[in-house]
Design brief:
It is a single chain. Helix content is 35%, strand content 12%. By secondary structure, it is α+β, with helices and mostly antiparallel strands. It has a three-stranded antiparallel β-sheet with strand order 3-4-5, with helices on one face. A two-stranded antiparallel ribbon has the order 1-2. The termini are far apart. The mean pLDDT is 84. Residues 42-147 form the Type II secretion system protein GspG C-terminal domain. It comes from Massilia arenae. Its main location: membrane. This is Type II secretion system core protein G.
Length: 147
């Protein structure tokens, strides 16, 4: 058998240096196992951040609605909705001192409009996001988020 020297290693003549099919398969399996372990953890954190963002937006609506009530003397009706924060409803009269938001009313983190009801289920009003699925009820990421 004849040996040739390549970059300081002894390699049989006629055979090139490189990875075998078995070595490549082992590396692919290891990468797949890592992706299977890390992937779900990453995507669950993404869902949690969207819920956190929705809660923060609803808290901002709460503060803005309180300012509206201080000016007008009442919360917007269900028919007036959150739009009363941007444009004066006819029933607000000269007391309206808005707009109460710097920008247009944002959608929830999933692109759905926020819902507004007055009176609410547990107070003077209720602002809610219907969650990821955009349907009432649900659990996990699909659960309703309310003030």
């Amino acid at each position: 058998m004849v040996f040739a020297m390549k970059q300081g290693a002894v390699v049989p003549a006629g055979r090139s240096a490189g990875f075998t099919l078995l070595e490549l398969l082992v590396v692919i399996v290891i990468i797949g196992l890592l992706a299977a372990y890390v992937g779900p953890k990453y995507f669950s954190q993404l869902g949690k951040s969207e819920v956190t963002a929705a809660r923060a937006q609803i808290d901002a609506f709460d503060k803005t609605l309180d300012t509206y009530r201080l000016d007008v003397g009442r919360y917007p009706t269900t028919d007036e909705g959150l739009a009363a924060l941007m444009t004066a409803p006819p029933s607000a009269g000269a007391k309206w001192n808005g707009p109460y938001l710097k920008k247009a009313i944002p959608p929830d983190p999933w692109g759905n409009p926020y819902q507004y009801r007055a009176p609410g289920a547990r107070g003077d009003y209720e602002v809610l996001s219907l969650g990821k699925d955009g349907q009432p009820g649900g659990s996990g990421d699909n659960a309703d988020i309310t003030n």
